[in-house]
Amino acid sequence: MRTSLHVLLALFVCLPVSTFAVTTIVKGSDATKYVLRGKIVNASGAVLDGELVIDRDTIVCVSADCPDPAGASMLTISNAFIYPGFIDAHNHVAYNVLPKFTPPRLYMNRGQWQGARAYTEFKKPYNLLKDTEKLYCEMVKWGELKALMSGITAIQGTSPNQLCFKTLIRNVENQSELGTSGSHIRTFILDISSFHDKIDFSVTKSFVVHLAEGIDDKSRNEFQTLKQKGLLRAETVIIHGTAFGDAEFAEMSKVGAKLVWSPQSNLALYGTTTDIALAVKHGVPVSLGVDWNPTGSDDIFGELRTAAEQNADRFGSVIRDQDWLSMITTNPARALALDTSIGQLAPTFKADITVLRAQGNDPHLTLLSSHLPDVEMVWVGGELLYGRATILQTLKPDQCERITVRGSAQRICVVDTKDPVVKSNQTLAVIREKLQTAYPQLAPLVP
Q1: pLDDT one digit per residue (tens) for the chain, 447 residues
Q2: Structural domains of the chain, ranges and CATH numbers in brackets
Q3: Do 320 and 363 touch, CB atoms closer than 8 A?
Q4: Predicted structure pTM score
């Protein structure tokens, strides 16, 4: 082992199941190379007790025993699982500055609540922050940081229009340094009847569209409009599909279209959610998305638990324990046509990695049992951006800000010195101060 500096650190953190997460670090001289040793989990369900090597932003080896690069920092991780970085397949990121919205009643379709006075009043602070205060960059960053703290390394749902989104986690519409074109992913969030653009599907490989969000015929008929416009294709990713029945899922399956499921938000607004049993029956690939803070879960862990409850109570457990990880890794990576770069822990893939404290011996049950304090480390493109304070302080001394997460001492790296785009020098404190000054009711990062 070749290092210029040897720093040993053992981290012992009590878990609810009386186990400990232990990371032993031997700090190396090359800050672009790391070796992670421990239980490596991929979406297939296989667990490898081995090593993962990071060289700059890329994974170069995953094996029982990898060659150790010169100068690499060595991290031996015990009583924890090393997962692919989680992907939130759908989230209106900038809206996560808003608190919870309590609908005064249940609705039949999204047009009803979007046009309701209660929602119009609720949304006013969003318009104030974005249009009057010109704080859209800070709003997006706040939503990204909230996601990062739950292990999210890539997220769908931010308009591709500002360079300030280039830092922190990957906003997939903004190319996210994955070598894609500006039209690789196209998103449409309005009523599909108002879509009149032409899409060049030789360039656009993922068309992400809100559709059939509701429980009435009006919602369901949006599927026919999508077909009439020639937009039901293998590249199509349908968000919600709450009104769909057997026929719609059968047609989706026939062309290879994908589905994004946001159960908590559906339940809050409509009192029910997408019939996932029918989607699974027809082999439609399902990804999970938090949707947004107002009616969605607080984080991806909460959304997983809501989905698991619906799966058990309503859908006969058609989703198996080993399927949940794929719904926040490989499935969204394929749906967003980024599956050659993210969603797996394998050589040539980007080093997007989430480490969670083990809740027993099963990585899939650990995923369903985890909460924010269980996040040990989150890496995006080979950069350790969040995790246990003692780990961050050892590897990146005084580079990251302190944050307490339900009693757990963590650190989060917000300032980006390597990519000096607009506002990349903002700290968490600066972002919070700007938003809270304009909007004192700012939703907390940690509820």
Answers
A1: 333 323 333 333 333 443 679 999 999 999 999 999 999 998 887 899 999 999 999 999 999 999 999 999 999 999 999 999 999 999 999 999 999 999 999 999 999 999 999 999 999 999 999 999 999 999 999 999 999 999 999 999 998 778 888 899 999 988 778 888 889 999 999 999 999 999 999 999 999 999 999 999 999 999 999 999 999 999 999 999 999 999 999 999 999 999 999 999 999 999 999 999 999 999 999 999 999 999 999 999 999 999 999 999 999 999 999 999 999 999 999 999 999 999 999 999 999 999 999 999 999 999 999 999 999 999 999 999 999 999 999 999 999 999 999 999 999 999 998 878 999 999 999 999 999 999 999 999 999
A2: 13-85+341-438 (2.30.40.10), 87-335 (3.20.20.140)
A3: no
A4: 0.95
- Side chain identity, residue 257: A
